[in-house]
Design brief:
The chain is built from four helices and four strands; from the N terminus they run αβββαβαα. By secondary structure, it is mostly helical. The N and C termini lie far apart (about 30 Å).
Length: about 90
């Protein structure tokens, strides 16, 4: 799952010792997301994925539900953007 920022950083830092790793988590279980609908994972899950990526050769880490969303976004980008925007708006409503 590549985005423009990650691609730009990789291009700019090519040939240096800096490695760019993208970590795409689903909603993280924090006080900020309490009461919101949807799958939430603990911060320790994200941290473990980051450590695993640093130890290995993986530069793109998709955690939990983000794996499915990335696959769907690849084939249905406009639909997924619309779906995510609707979910974000719904999550903000009291």
């Amino acid at each position: 799952m590549y985005n423009n920022l990650e691609s730009a950083l990789r291009a700019q830092l090519a040939g240096t010792r800096v490695r760019v790793i993208e970590i795409a988590p689903p909603m993280v279980a924090t006080r900020l997301t309490e009461g919101m609908a949807g799958e939430r994972v603990g911060p320790e899950v994200i941290a473990a994925a980051a450590v695993k990526a640093l130890a290995g050769r993986t530069d793109n880490v998709l955690v939990g539900q983000a794996k499915s969303l990335a696959l769907l976004s690849k084939f249905f980008p406009k639909f997924m953007l619309s779906l995510l925007n609707k979910a974000a708006l719904a999550a903000r409503k009291p």
